[in-house]
Structure formats: C-alpha cells, structure tokens
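I had to read the description of the data format several times before I understood it. In essence, backbone conformation is discretised, so a fold becomes a row of integers matching the chain in length. I therefore recommend that a typical entry be quoted early in the introduction. For illustration, here is how one protein appears when written out as sequence plus structure tokens.

***
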Amino acid sequence: MLLKECFIKREPFGFPDEIFNALKKGHFSLVIKGNAGTGKTTLALEIIRGLPKGSSLYLTTRVLPEQLYSQFPWIKEHIDKKMIIDARQTRIPMAKSTFENIQARNITIFLKELHQR
C-alpha cells in the first residue's frame, strides 16, 4: 500500500505520524489495544476508511461482523464482509512441538491461519 493511494489526512486532525509513516512503507499490521470504550474500533475503522477498498482486513475478537455494520453503517461501502475476520471462536490447533508452538505465536502466521479458515 503506497501512501499516494491513501486518502488519510495528516493534518490538522489526521492520524499520528507513526500511523502516517507506516502507511508510507505499506504492508504492515496494526494492533490497537486499550480499555473498553476508548475508541479502538472507531480508530481502526477510520483508518480502513481512508485506505483503498479491499486493501485491509479487520479482525474482530468481540463482536459479530453484523454488529459492526449495525454500529458503524458507513463501513458497508468501505469494508466487504469477506474482509472481516470473525476470530471470536477461532481456535488454532495445538502445536505438536515447542518449535511449532513458537511459530504459532508469530502474528503474521496467526493472521494467515485465521484467514485460511
């Protein structure tokens, strides 16, 4: 993803430089953490809104994709349902060895496993 393809504004009330600079580089994963009600979902969806359609995946661990569409109806035109990964009940099989267990902790491998299911 190149920045010139993005629609995210940097100033005056755009996104932090760290996010803006990551978008310049492209091909990255962003994990947003925080307490309940602090705007994690809104931030993630606003970032996706500023990116070209189909270029992002949204991993939900707490709500159904339908609930996202209900709470944030504007995302329907920015995020296809197939781009929302419902990880609320996803289970990765137990690793057979310590090495495989360590590999399963790698976020890239984890996300690929989720997307393939």
